Amino acid sequence: MIYELRIYDCLPGRLPALLKRFNEHTLAIWDRHGIRQAGFFTTVIGENSNRLTYFIAWESLADREAKWAAFISDPAWHKARDDSERDGPIIANISSQLLAPTAFSSVK
After folding, report:
1. SS3 track for the chain
2. pLDDT confidence of residue 38
3. CA–CA separation, 5 vs 98, rounded Å?
4. Per-residue confidence of the chain (108 residues) as pLDDT tens digits?
5. In sequence order, what are the residues at sequence separation of 6 or more whose Cβ sits closer than 8 angstroms to the Cβ of residue 26?
6. Are strands 2-10 and 91-99 parallel, antiparallel or unpaired?
């Protein structure tokens, strides 16, 4: 099992639009493609209050490659993204890391 840590820094005032897109569209599309989220978080105290941080659980790098490619080419995803950005862009920056749990991690 590997975990992907993704951090989305939103443009000022646009975090609610991103949260709405995930809640109303993205997660259902992920379900269709077998993508399993492992937690979503907003920043209460920290460097950026316009940030969404989340984890995705993958069986392997090959699993990630196949499922993510299917997701990003899905017309429903393109429509949801485009519709959510009608009032302007949402994301200023995205960062991603692929992480492997240590032998002593409570998450395996």
Report:
1. CEEEEEEEEECCCCHHHHHHHHHHHHHHHHHHHCCEEEEEEECCCCCCCCEEEEEEEECCHHHHHHHHHHHHCCHHHHHHHHHHCCCCCCEEEEEEEEECCCCCCCCC
2. 96
3. 6
4. 999 999 999 999 999 999 999 999 999 999 999 999 999 999 999 989 999 999 999 999 999 999 999 999 999 999 999 999 999 999 999 999 999 999 999 988
5. 77, 80
6. antiparallel
Tokens of 19: 């949260």
- What is d(CA 22, CA 7) in angstroms, rounded to the nearest whole number? 14
Q: Residues of 69-92 as b/e, b for ≥16 C-beta within 10 angstroms? A: eebeeeeebeebeeebeeeeebbe
Residue 57, CA distances (Å) to 23, 27, 45, 61, 87 in order:
18, 14, 25, 11, 32
